[in-house]
Amino acid sequence: MIALNPDENSRLPYLLRLPQPGGDLLFRTSGTWPRVKGLYCHPVSLDEWPTDAAIVERLELRSCQRRGAAIDVILQRSRENRSQLVFTTARGRDAVFWQAPRTRKQARPNVRTPTARAQGIEGLQILVDSHERYAYQFGTQQANTVQRALPCGDYGLDVDGRLVASVERKSLADLVSSLTSGKLRYQIADLAALPRAAVVVEDRYSQVFKLDWVRPAVVADGLAEVQIRWPNVPIVFCETRQLAEEWTYRFLAAAHTWAITETSALQRISAASGNVTELDLAAAAPEPSTAEVRAWARTTGLSVPDRGKLRPDIWQAWHDANDAR
């Protein structure tokens, strides 16, 4: 069972309760399942389980057995059914980590990503699709994020009111699923309509040939086919989520520099050229949300209501300021 932690001051918002032969075990944890990374678990007494617990998930178990320094947890469901709680030490202290096969096997490249700003851009603004789950935060990069409903991709770049670049993020499982279902072809076709776009995969290409629920040759052939069909949308394997996030940041920063300062881009953007170019054909940038405009208006001293629609003059003021930039 997983319940909400009644302690509002705790950084671990959930309680995880596991049955064991000698008595149930209770942990505070930061998530309901280790989907993208291992979750830290803090063991606590069963007395902390509230009598009126707000149950988030009650999951039927196929198996929950302790094997040495780990507890193997197998759920009675077809997907995301295996995980493991590992008892170890971190910085000289006892610690417990909850991990799934994907997070456990994920490569550890032992590299430290640079902190220098990409392309010399300070505070690069990256659009994040509002439907993106477990989105990159770009916390270690010099960038800020704004949520929008993007027409394609998960992370986009707005230059002069146009969506000129976008990156679609994929886990290996999502990549294979969308490829075999045909969904990936439509996604890449949409991305190909932008001046610059890419698909970034949070895994190594070698893992394609270790798949056991689909023939690896089918996946390899499919990836080769979409690259031949849409060569302007590269599929980049970045080994880990951390490196995929770093690559996405650097790619969008380079696209920003290309669209703003490169001589050929300036010639394309110039109205005097009279030619229709790929930047001219780029999709219009998504409109900001009401919450974003409301927050902006307050920083400029404009009076806005706490909820509901904004007055037309507030929207016009935002567009005037945006056009000025």
Automatic annotation (TrEMBL):
Residues annotated as domain ERCC4: 125-205
Pfam families referenced in this protein's UniProt entry, alphabetically: ERCC4, Lsr2_DNA-bd
SUPFAM superfamilies xref list: Restriction endonuclease-like
UniProt-listed GO biological process terms: DNA metabolic process
Keyword annotations: DNA-binding
Listed InterPro entries: E3-bd_dom_sf (IPR036625), ERCC4_domain (IPR006166), Lsr2_DNA-bd (IPR055370), Restrct_endonuc-II-like (IPR011335)
One MF annotation (Gene Ontology) recorded for this entry: nuclease activity
Stretch forming the signal peptide: none
Protein name from the UniProt record: ERCC4-type nuclease
